[in-house]
Amino acid sequence: MRVTVLGVTVDTYTMAETVEKIKLAVRGQTAIRIVTANPEMIYASQYNSDLKNVLNSADIITADGIGVVWAVRQLGAQIKERVTGIDLVQSLFPIANAEKWRIYFLGGRPGVAERAVEEVSSDYPAITFCFNHGYFSLQEEADIIKKITDFKPDVLLVGLGAPRQEFWLEEHPGLAYVGIGVGGSFDALAGTVQRAPKKIQDLHVEWLYRLLKEPWRWKRQSVLPRFLFKVLWQRFKLKSL
């Protein structure tokens, strides 16, 4: 089921359902593009029609964050859980290992994607990896695209930050069966950024943990109350019809 949140259509799939759709796409050699949409991204699309079009043209838009899960529920739909970029990536690895997928990491600072590959491949040796950092120029882009094309990945994970990664994947279709924008997931996989403890994740306040660890994020987090207000206004207008 899809629910329109501030003009962006969000899927209510569980993690298991999302992983299953990715598995079927790889097996069927069907190209799909996945957006992991957080409140900041959805809010920004209110003022950027190009971004909204890119988001809505994706094959799957997951609820990345408890704020989006809350919004979907406020708008009258059932959704069991959030499907974040990092959790989705980690849920894919066991299947990718069993089926010997080829996965490309594109993004992060120099050395981060390489370190992430080293960490993941030690646990999942049957996956074939390739990588490139995200600090490339327009002049270097053609070589990177050729590298990806020659590698022929089943899954292309792009961590260029939102919304750059969403635009990049939309502008370069067909590089893999599955393309996913994963934000800062490579930092988490490489261990350069520590995720909140599991108990904090389960309480759905991981955003607060990150804010305390990285106070400079306050400008991004300040979008949240505005996002919540707009969702409540959307709910009010729907009930007034």
UniProtKB/TrEMBL annotation:
Pfam families: Glyco_tran_WecG (PF03808). Its EC number is 2.4.1.187. Keywords: Cell wall biogenesis/degradation, Glycosyltransferase, Teichoic acid biosynthesis, Transferase. InterPro entries: TagA_TarA (IPR034714), WecG_TagA_CpsF (IPR004629). One of its GO terms (biological process) is cell wall organization. It is an enzyme of class 2 (transferase). It comes from the Bacteria. GO terms for molecular function: N-acetylglucosaminyldiphosphoundecaprenol N-acetyl-beta-D-mannosaminyltransferase activity. Catalyzes the conversion of GlcNAc-PP-undecaprenol into ManNAc-GlcNAc-PP-undecaprenol, the first committed lipid intermediate in the de novo synthesis of teichoic acid. Belongs to the glycosyltransferase 26 family. TagA/TarA subfamily. This is N-acetylglucosaminyldiphosphoundecaprenol N-acetyl-beta-D-mannosaminyltransferase. It comes from Desulfosporosinus acididurans. The lineage of its organism: Bacteria, Bacillati, Bacillota, Clostridia, Eubacteriales.
